[in-house]
Amino acid sequence: MTRGPWHVAVLMGGWSAERPVSLMSGEGVAKALESRGHTVTRIDMDRNVAARLAETRADVIFNALHGVPGEDGTVQGMMDLMGLTYTHSGLATSVIAIDKQLTKQALVPHGIPMPGGHIVQSESLFTADPLPRPYVLKPVNEGSSVGVAIVTAEGNYGNPIARDSVGPWQDFPELLAEPYIRGRELTTAVLGDEALLVTELRPKSGFYDFDAKYTDGMTEHVCPADIPDEITKACKALALRSHRLLGCKGASRADFRWDDEQGIAGLYLLEVNTQPGMTPLSLVPEQAARLGIDYATLVETIVEEALNRAGGKQDG
């Protein structure tokens, strides 16, 4: 497949909590493609998205959506039915990877280390803790650390959690409760079928939540991470293996917690993001740049991969 020129529809926006990030990702992708001479149609997803995609008649759709319904298989299923070629992972992979509990069921039996935990009804939190403190509560199917709470013995949520305290229990009827893993935040991007680098994320305050991810200056990115070689190799191997086991396509990003007091036994995969951000602060473009892949080339590589597999069924 030659590098164009192509007509690319960049699908962005939508109505999830991650809409602002998606708009930034989509605009960055659109400008990069235009800078390389490709024709771009920007589509801010609304309820008429199917008709708009059909009218556009693009060669390929760059899926720059984040969260539900652009990352959970809904949009992928629609595009499959329409016979459209699109970037990133397909229906089945998206359904599994957006759901943290399904991801565990898919990966843990294959030896991928992930934290324990279980689904809890938010209402039950006001009676008793689901796990010994400290523990983490997070939505089952949101990304970008949306709605994550760390419940500690000395925290201000109450003990048990107070019904009127601000937290994800006010927005989600059920949550995933996991043991809190002390230590360091690491992430590894996979592009095509190659793990790139390991980045350590050091928030200036608190933890690596939504604001820390997307507010300039709130998090220090150490890339490549200053960690032992065995941890670097393990992150890259686990990221690539998880990418393959889930059937990811294009780019993905694996997020880890590493308890550096436990060595290799303290490394845990938290989740695999099948639609990693493409904003100026995003981790996949940063790792690619460190390896000499500029932003526009990264975007073209993702598009070209989708076009190259368009001759067969977009599975996974």
UniProtKB/TrEMBL annotation:
Coiled coil: none annotated. It comes from Sphingobium cyanobacteriorum. It is found in: Cytoplasm. It catalyses: 2 D-alanine + ATP = D-alanyl-D-alanine + ADP + phosphate + H(+). Its cofactor is Mn(2+); Mg(2+). Cell wall formation. Belongs to the D-alanine--D-alanine ligase family. It is an enzyme of class 6 (ligase). It holds the Pfam family Dala_Dala_lig_N. Keywords: ATP-binding, Cell shape, Cell wall biogenesis/degradation, Cytoplasm, Ligase, Nucleotide-binding, Peptidoglycan synthesis. PANTHER family: D-ALANINE--D-ALANINE LIGASE, D-ALANINE--D-ALANINE LIGASE B. This is D-alanine--D-alanine ligase. Its EC number is 6.3.2.4. Pathway: Cell wall biogenesis; peptidoglycan biosynthesis. Residues 104-304 form the ATP-grasp domain. GO terms for molecular function: D-alanine-D-alanine ligase activity.
